[in-house]
């Protein structure tokens, strides 16, 4: 019986097809043999080492990647890919001299354009992160391997643009468009660069609403930088003095992001302008916070200085005994005085201390505890309740409340309100795997009271005479007010809202986060009622505004025995739905009730129009 070939082909065609199949198989076997021969021994080991190095590099295991590429060089001493890989690692480690050496050696070893190490891809990676020097190294190597690569030409233009080298940036954007007319991002950046050139400046620092705060000058002038609000935001923007090799503020702590990126702050220029005017000629600081988020809306320190003329005014600022370069809002510690009574009362409320177990007490202006004289600021006579002691800010009444609560509990609530903890305004940049630090002075509270006299001081926010045992920054004082305003939850303060690279891509995004749960919502509500009453009818009445419920607490303190008085006022408003929490301290200027409270009232009057 005869079997018909598959597909009904004739025998002749069937055997011819079989012959071609055998020929094809033979070619495949020969090719495989060639490849096996080519990559056998040292070649195969080299190939494996290179790919292991790239795998480790992409997983950010740089020490392993270095070992892999060095192993490849041991196999093939002049291996171009291995040298190129070591250059890639050096760029990642910001060792640019070493990177230049390896990249040059790789090119000398006849490195060709390849898919194993795509320098344009890594340039794009660094560009997205706003790391322009790293990106520039990668794009330069990419262009040496492929001079007409439109993406590398565009990327190089972006790096030059970020550095303020506008004419060169425009040249590279145009080159990119020559080789790829459809590269719309190059056309967009070309337009932006031409606009920057026409303006003669690049704006890089903005408030929360996008209003400019600082620009980098492209045209020759007395200064490379101009600060739009000048002295009003001096302690926020800071300055750069190349002449004196010093920088401060955002210019110091975010130097690697400047210029080239756009930095948006939580600061609201209108609020900042308001507090600077309300401060008048008083020395001190004002901080305004959004209670629900922790965003710093204003941060003002006085005396201030002019960052636009920092070099010209250098010695006038440095030799000034009033220290205009000092940021009193974040860097100076003050005795809190009576603003700390909110902590004492909060502890009493949360531990269910009954007024009948403490009051009435008699305030004769002073009393004796453990043989030491303890003073009140006034003779209040018979004090009948916690509410009265708070309204009148009676030291002796609050001292007895402190005794009822106990020293350990006072210390516990100091911790709940954030004392002896760091409130750094910096942030962790996940994209760069880097912590950016913007330090704030750490507030301190008493840990162990030796006797009733020290507990009395502790309960009233006072230090042991001659010792700085109780200290706080104005920023932290504003956080205390904000925690009460936010139902007992203290949010972590932050000042960096967002950072975008030269192309507008978000590098970092600030988000609200909880710092502490200081109080229960019920305690926060009861404290709010006390603070509103203190403004309506009590010691804080000079902050009163008709038609708005302001919750506030005055304080008066001194950093030294018999030294000048610091005037405090912490507050938030509107009390029923707080939009702003603030702290005012007037450094050596008098009492909180007469100096700081009216300033807070002026601020709220403007902000709550």
Uncertain parts: 1-9
Major pleated sheet: 6 strands, mixed
Mean pLDDT: 93
What is the 3D form?
elongated
At CATH level 2, the architecture of the domain at 42-199 is Alpha Horseshoe
What is the name of the CATH class of the domain at 42-199? Mainly Alpha
Task: Assign the CATH topology of the domain at 42-199.
Answer: Serine Threonine Protein Phosphatase 5, Tetratricopeptide repeat
* H/I helix tally: 22
User: In what range is the share of β-strand residues?
Assistant: 15-25%
What order do the strands of the largest sheet run in, or round the barrel if closed? 3-2-1-6-16-17
**Helical amount among residues, as a percent range?**
40-55%
Radius of gyration: 34 Å
Distance between the termini: 107 Å
Question: What would you give as the CATH superfamily of the domain at 42-199?
Answer: Tetratricopeptide repeat domain
- Structural category is alpha+beta
Describe the fold and architecture.
It is built from 22 helices and 21 strands. It is an alpha+beta fold and 609 residues long. Residues 1-9 have low confidence and may be disordered. The chain has a domain at 42-199: Serine Threonine Protein Phosphatase 5, Tetratricopeptide repeat (Alpha Horseshoe), CATH 1.25.40. Helix 2 packs parallel to helix 4 and helix 6 runs parallel beside helix 8. The strands form seven sheets. A six-stranded mixed β-sheet has the order 3-2-1-6-16-17. A five-stranded antiparallel β-sheet has the order 8-7-21-20-19, sandwiched between helices. The relative contact order is 0.08. The longest helix has 28 residues, at 11-38.
């Amino acid at each position: 019986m005869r079997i018909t070939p598959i597909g009904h082909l004739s025998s002749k065609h069937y055997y011819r097809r079989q012959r071609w199949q055998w020929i094809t198989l033979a070619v495949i076997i020969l090719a495989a043999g060639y490849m096996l021969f080519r990559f056998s021994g040292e070649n195969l080991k080299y190939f494996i080492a290179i790919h292991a190095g790239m795998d480790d590099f992409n997983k950010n295991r740089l020490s392993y990647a270095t070992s892999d590429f060095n192993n490849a060089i041991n196999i093939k001493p002049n291996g171009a890919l291995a040298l190129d890989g070591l250059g890639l690692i050096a760029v990642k480690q910001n060792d640019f001299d070493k990177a230049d050496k390896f990249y040059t050696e790789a090119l000398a070893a006849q490195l060709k354009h390849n898919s194993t190490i795509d320098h344009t891809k890594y340039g794009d990676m660094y560009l997205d992160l706003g790391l322009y020097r790293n990106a520039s190294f990668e794009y330069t190597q990419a262009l040496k391997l492929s001079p007409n690569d439109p993406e590398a030409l565009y990327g190089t233009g972006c790096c030059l643009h970020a550095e303020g080298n506008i004419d060169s940036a425009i040249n590279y954007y145009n080159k990119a468009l020559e080789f790829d007319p459809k590269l719309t991002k190059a056309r967009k950046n070309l337009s932006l660069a031409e606009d920057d050139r026409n303006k003669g400046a690049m704006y890089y620092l903005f408030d929360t609403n996008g209003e400019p705060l600082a620009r980098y000058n492209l045209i020759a002038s007395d200064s490379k930088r101009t600060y739009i609000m000048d002295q009003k935001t001096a302690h926020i923007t800071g300055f750069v003095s190349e002449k004196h090799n010093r920088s401060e503020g955002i210019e110091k702590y975010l130097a690697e992001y400047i210029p080239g990126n756009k930095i948006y702050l939580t600061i609201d220029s209108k609020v900042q302008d308001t507090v600077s005017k309300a401060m008048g000629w008083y020395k001190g600081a004002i901080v305004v916070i959004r209670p629900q988020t922790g965003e710093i809306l204003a941060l003002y320190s006085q005396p201030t200085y002019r960052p636009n003329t920092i070099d010209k005014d250098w010695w006038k600022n440095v030799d000034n005994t009033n220290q205009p370069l000092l940021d009193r809002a974040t860097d100076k510690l003050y005795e809190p005085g009576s603003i700390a009574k909110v902590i004492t009362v909060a502890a009493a409320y949360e531990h269910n201390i009954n007024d009948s177990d403490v009051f009435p007490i008699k305030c004769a202006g002073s009393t004796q505890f453990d043989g030491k004289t303890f003073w009140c600021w006034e003779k209040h006579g018979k004090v009948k309740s916690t509410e009265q002691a708070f309204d009148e800010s009676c030291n002796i009444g609050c001292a007895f409340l402190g005794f009822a609560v106990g020293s350990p509990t006072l210390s516990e609530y100091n911790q709940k309100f954030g004392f002896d903890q760091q409130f750094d305004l910096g942030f962790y940049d996940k994209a760069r795997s880097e912590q950016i630090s913007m330090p704030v002075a750490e507030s301190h509270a008493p840990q162990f009271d030796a006797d009733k006299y020290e507990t009395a001081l502790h309960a009233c926010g006072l230090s042991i005479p001659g010792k700085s045992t109780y200290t706080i920054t104005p920023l932290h004082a504003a956080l205390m007010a904000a925690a009460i305003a936010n139902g007992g939850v203290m949010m972590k303060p932050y000042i960096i809202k967002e950072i975008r690279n030269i192309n507008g891509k978000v590098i970092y995004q600030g988000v609200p986060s909880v710092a502490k749960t200081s109080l229960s919502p019920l305690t926060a509500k009861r404290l709010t009622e006390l603070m509103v009453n203190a403004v309506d009818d009590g010691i804080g009445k000079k902050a009163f505004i008709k038609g708005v419920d302001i919750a506030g607490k005055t304080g008066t303190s001194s950093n030294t025995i018999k030294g000048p008085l610091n005037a405090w006022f912490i507050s938030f408003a509107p009390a029923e739905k707080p939009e702003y929490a603030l702290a005012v301290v007037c450094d050596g200027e008098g009492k909180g009730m007469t100096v700081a409270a009216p300033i807070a009232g002026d601020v709220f009057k403007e902000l709550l129009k």
